[in-house]
Amino acid sequence: MDLHFNQSLVLGYHSGSQISRVLTEDWMERNMFCPVCGAPVLEHYEANKPVADFFCDDCKSDFELKSKESKTAVIGHKIADGAYGTMIERITSLRNPHLFVMTYTNWTVNNLLIIPKFFFVPDIIEKRPPLKETARRAGWVGCNIEIGNIPDSGKIFIIRNSQQEDKSKVVDLYQRTLNLRTSKIDSRGWLLDVLRCVEKIPNKEFCLDEMYAFTDELQQKHPDNNFVPDKIRQQLQYLRDKGFIKFTSRGHYQKLF
Ligand SMILES: [Zn+2]
Is the pTM of this model over 0.70? Predict the structure, then answer.
């Protein structure tokens, strides 16, 4: 994989956002395989298709690309996306594309990761203030994706610090996250929240009391639920059934990731 952009494509361009879009999309088209099925190339949708930027002709997966000029991966940050309402509608109807997040400097890719679509919940979408009266699109409401609120298991690196990860490893990691798919947005939220709590515990082995320490935090996120400890135990069972943790003895668990 050559990590450099083809700068000859933007001779005569002046808009920074346009230059960045042309160069990053061209790079993806020339270099990126499908992280879902491993097909060697991705196809580019016609410009301004509202749904996604790329698709895989083999497995029909859709992908959106967000890029940012930055030396480090933006996994703890937020990135700007399109209209807030459209985003929430796509997530709640489970029709959002997978998301590629790229960072680059000096027209060279530094980091590229894929966030599978089932890691998206309304909770990670932040509403931006409406554009001012004086703006061309006055009143329009955009959104930010809070990448930092997505569990680490949902951030799969393809390029990390300018080093390419093994393609088969990327596809394997994606396949593993497939187990976290849920058919309801509410259960998706609980599962990902509890997975994030498990990830926050530094040790591989942990016990139920360490999980109960997150009760207040989870209660704030789910104010309508009066049985948070029950919910924690139930989600730990799901994570066990999905192969992310192992039950070692009563109230004791081990991470398998
Ligand atoms: Zn594919």
Answer: yes
